[in-house]
Design brief:
With about 220 residues, the protein is α/β, with parallel strands linked by helices. The protein has eight helices and eight strands, in the order βαβαβαβαββαβαβαα. The structure holds D-xylitol-5-phosphate and zinc ion.
Length: about 220
């Protein structure tokens, strides 16, 4: 099950030095990152404000070949998701509770030519994927409550990952599963084993001096 899809590591730029964002992004890409994870927060859906459309536009220019994985923790995803695709996102992942019509949000992202992801908070049940899974490209399980980097991994995520994999098998659907929050070398093996394909890591990469070593430590732990 776990070797079904290749493992990808997506550094969350939330933990980077924003004053040197382009440099930081290119540094992790050179250090072996597969995707760049961009955490957009609006101060309403989550109690924090981070970055918005102009920053994604600039990142697209600074890292033209990077896969921009844009995680929007915002209200009105219907309205903004297509704008993030226009700004340069390759994938836009949104929270279904924030959308009046989650399936329409998925359609709008696809119409603009990007991949669509559904993000589920730690207490959000898997029921949301029941009739949406076949139209999704990725399902993100939050392993912390959204809003801040540097929080501790919530252990029940492992059980939820296994349940999600079983549910997807029963539905006959094959999509990427991503885990976001508190990922580090000491838990990456369990997360991968339980069925994750894409591991987001902020602090565990950007708070280390050697990005290549930090990424290799997570990758080795996950594949080991
Ligand atoms: C939390 C964000 C995460 C977070 C991950 O709302 O979605 O991407 O920045 O950061 P770490 O790896 O530090 O938990
Ligand atoms: Zn995120």
């Amino acid at each position: 099950m776990t070797d079904r899809r290749p493992l990808r590591i997506a550094p969350s730029i939330l933990a980077s030095d924003f004053a040197r964002l382009g440099e930081e992004c290119n540094a992790v890409l050179e250090a072996g990152a597969d995707w760049l994870h961009v955490d957009v927060m609006d101060g309403h859906y989550v109690p924090n404000i981070t970055i918005g459309l102009p920053v994604v536009e600039s990142l697209r220019k600074a890292c033209p070949d990077a896969f921009l994985d844009v995680h929007i923790m915002i209200e009105k995803p219907d309205e903004f998701a297509p704008l993030f695709v226009e700004a340069g996102a390759d994938l836009v992942c949104f929270h279904p509770e924030a959308s009046d019509h989650p399936h329409r949000t998925v359609q709008k992202i696809h119409e603009k030519g990007a991949k669509a992801g559904l993000a589920l908070n730690p207490a959000t049940p898997l029921d949301w994927v029941e009739y949406l899974a076949e139209d999704l490209d990725l399902i993100l399980l939050m392993s912390v409550n959204p809003g801040f980097g540097g929080q501790a991994f919530i252990p029940s995520t492992i059980r939820k990952l296994r349940d999600l994999r079983n549910k997807l098998s029963a539905l006959g659907v094959d999509v990427d599963v991503q885990v976001d929050g508190g990922v580090k070398p000491t838990n990456a093996g369990d997360i991968r084993q339980a069925g994750a394909d894409v591991l987001v890591a902020g602090s565990a990469i950007f708070k280390r001096d050697d990005y290549a070593q930090a990424i290799a430590d997570i990758r080795n732990a996950a594949e080991g």
